[in-house]
Design goal:
The complex is a heterodimer of chains A (304) and B (247).
Chain A (H helix, E strand, L loop, with lengths): L1 E10 L2 E11 L4 E5 L6 H8 L7 E6 L2 E2 L6 H7 E4 L11 H9 L6 H14 L15 H13 L5 E5 L7 H16 L3 E6 L2 H7 L2 E6 L1 E6 L1 H9 L1 E7 L4 H9 L3 E6 L2 E6 L2 H14 L4 E7 L3 H10 L1
Parallel strand pairs in A: 3-8, 3-9, 6-7, 7-8
Antiparallel strand pairs in A: 1-2, 1-4, 4-5, 9-10, 11-13, 11-14, 12-13
Helix pairs in contact in A: 3-4, 5-6, 8-11, 9-10
Chain B lengths: L2 H15 L3 H27 L4 H16 L1 H24 L2 H5 L5 H39 L7 H25 L5 H24 L7 H25 L2 H6 L3
Helix pairs in contact in B: 1-6, 2-3, 2-4, 2-6, 4-6, 4-7, 4-8, 6-7, 7-8, 7-9
């Protein structure tokens, strides 16, 4: 369990993170969304005990961020993928991981096993003796993820894991994060990519120095626009529109023989709507739930 | 303090140094110049009896002046190597992942200090062994005795680690301000090497004599500066400082 309460970080007069209160459950994949300078990386750095907090509290598991006695214990239980991969390019993939494994008191046999497991899982085992500097961006990113996992941490922080990767490499990394999700680790994901957040995260927080919104991607979409259904008809006429309004529903838009209708609970309300439309002589072709994308929500909240 | 973690950092740096041609170049060229070239110059000077180089100082004076090169090396070589160790990490952006490990700032700093000290000291002691052997070979017939080893070179080789340490600590401070390995090397060489080059020239021109007493005073002064610079470098090497203030 990771909790923050009024977590704040100031650099001189600049407030980078302002009064952040969060609760993240074990095994949850939690996304931080926000524009550049929103405080995502600063939040992660505070939680990883890399920089101090100005005020507020934060806890990871039973340990308190900012308590000097707990700093090393927190660093021992977390893994961090930094925004820049920061590999030792002259060293081989194996040596990069072996170097980090030593700081977590893994004995030689355990290091060997863990390195083999991770490199095989990421498809890098055959290239284990090649200097990391010769790797493609995607391979470097995978190796950096392996480095963050070398000590099998229960809490993982991934800062922009697919930034600057080509679509294929980004997909590989994303798929790997989805695999990690199955292992019930707590994962914090900093990303600009809303599609990525929607696919991977159980819940997201939209940050702009302050916490603007938090919830599941679905909850955030609904919080902005409510739930809507789109009813596609053969032909729309005034009788059909009136029939829907008469049973108490608001029509947001009529376009191309389709109706966009505001609903609260489509599973329960759709049959009544269908019945009213058919009674007014309408022929329904299909119904889909229609909502704002996470991108719409994000843009509205961040700009608004 | 976990010495194993500190040593792991130093061992990693040694692996990287092996792939850096400039580091190899410095650690090989210095012993060659000091250990072989200086005895050859002495041999040349002895073969030309009227040579002013020998005339002014005498053979032993010349050898004592030459031995100051070990102090110059102790100041310069760590700068070249520590720049790769620290600015290299900055350039590769590998410091943040390292700082996210359970190691303390002190353990990381110790690891970096070890890696900045070991190679230069190995180069200096190796070159001194070559230098003393060849100098004895060259001068034995003129002097009628083996000049080396003696207390003077012994004192110089005892002062050398303090100078190396000073150079590494200065480099840590320089690394917090610079982002380019060459600039860090040049600045470090200027700051730590220049005073010893002046010392050498002063000795060469007879303005100063590096007696054993003067060497002890010099060691004391450098040790005092080491302590002051250690606290400054320790203050510069803090996680938060590195992540938020290092350029």
């Amino acid at each position: 369990m990771t909790d923050t309460e009024g977590l704040t970080k100031k650099f001189g007069d600049l407030t980078a993170v302002d009064n952040l209160t969060l609760h993240v459950n074990d095994g949850e994949v939690f996304g931080f969304l926000g524009p550049n300078g929103a405080g995502k990386t600063t939040t992660v750095r505070m939680l990883c005990c890399l920089i101090s907090k100005t005020s507020g509290t934060a806890r990871i598991g039973n340990y308190e961020v900012g308590n000097s006695a707990d700093q090393q214990k927190i660093r021992r239980m977390i893994g961090l993928l930094t925004e820049n991969v920061g590999l030792y390019e002259e060293l081989s993939a194996y040596d990069n991981l072996d170097f980090y494994g030593r700081f977590y008191k893994l004995d030689e046999q355990k290091r060997k096993e863990q390195i083999e497991y991770l490199l095989k899982m990421l498809g890098l085992w055959e290239k284990r003796n090649i200097p990391a500097g010769t790797f493609s961006k995607g391979m470097k990113q995978k190796l950096a993820i392996a480095r963050a996992l070398i000590h099998d941490p229960r809490v993982l922080f991934l800062d922009e894991p697919t930034a600057s990767l080509d679509p294929e490499a980004a997909k590989t990394v994303r798929d790997f994060i989805l695999e990690l999700k199955k292992e019930k680790r707590t994962i914090f994901l900093n990303t600009h990519l809303l599609d990525e957040a929607e696919k991977i995260c159980d819940r997201v927080a939209i940050l702009k120095t302050r916490l603007i919104a938090t919830g599941t991607p679905q909850e955030l979409r609904r919080s902005l626009s409510g739930r809507k259904i789109k009813v596609q008809l053969q032909r729309v006429d005034d009788l059909i529109v009136e029939a829907v309004k008469r049973i108490g529903f608001q029509i947001s838009e009529v376009t191309n023989n389709s109706l966009l209708i505001d609903v609260n609970d489509p599973e329960k309300e759709n049959p009544a709507i269908l019945k009213a439309i058919e009674a007014a002589g309408g022929h329904v072709q299909f119904i889909t739930e229609f909502g704002s994308s996470l991108e719409d929500v994000y843009l509205k909240l961040v700009k608004g | 303090m976990d010495l194993q973690s500190a040593w792991a950092i130093a061992a990693k740096d040694f692996k990287i140094f092996k792939r850096k041609s400039q580091v190899i170049y410095i650690t090989i060229v210095f012993p060659l110049i000091i250990g072989i070239a200086l005895p050859l110059i002495t041999q040349y000077a002895l073969n030309n009896a009227k040579n002013r180089l020998v005339g002014g100082l005498g053979i032993t004076g010349l050898m004592d002046a030459f031995s100051i090169f070990f102090l110059v090396g102790a100041a310069i070589i760590p700068t070249a190597i520590a720049s790769y160790s620290l600015v290299g990490e900055k350039v590769q952006k590998s410091l943040e992942p390292l700082l996210a490990t359970p190691m303390t700032d002190g353990e990381i700093l110790l690891g970096k200090t070890i890696s900045g000290l070991v190679v230069p000291l190995a180069a200096i002691y190796a070159s001194s062994a070559i230098y003393m052997s060849l100098m004895d070979l060259v001068t034995h017939s003129k002097l009628g005795y083996l000049y080396y080893p003696n207390w003077h070179i012994g004192a110089i080789l005892l002062v050398a680690p303090f100078i190396c340490l000073l150079s590494v600590e200065l480099n840590i401070i320089i690394s917090s301000r610079l982002n380019d390995v060459r600039s860090a090397q040049q600045t470090g060489m200027l700051l730590s090497g220049f005073p010893f080059i002046i010392l050498y020239l002063a000795t060469e021109f007879g303005l100063f004599t590096l007696t054993d007493t003067n060497l002890i005073i010099l060691a004391g002064v450098i040790l005092a500066i080491d302590v002051v610079v250690f606290f400054v470098s320790r203050a510069a090497f803090q996680r938060e400082e590195i992540l938020t203030k290092w350029k």
